Amino acid sequence: MMALLEMRDKLPAFASYHMAGYWDQDGAELGRAIQRVVESHGAKALKLKAFPWWLIRLAAPFNETLREMMEMRYLWQRAVRLENQQLKKVLGTEPHTPLETALARTLGSLGCLPVRA
Q: Are 103 and 33 a contacting pair, CB within 8 Å?
């Protein structure tokens, strides 16, 4: 975003620049990456389980957030991929932080990782 901001006077007023980001091929790659990061920080191995959509459906009539989650469930049921051609055309590349580095920083900042001695 900073690279785009630095050249904003050369860009159209209303343009979209999507990042392709990380593609989770089987829907569990991100979970496995989180497992690796958590374990590399000395925490107990996490178990991956399917998300309990049936429970969300039961509770949704009583909770606005869960109702909204049910409306957005289609995003978990079909692949949605953003195209980054415009971003690459303008910047030459799509900047990336390695996935496990980004996860470690994010989980660490949220207090979800054990503090190393």
A: yes
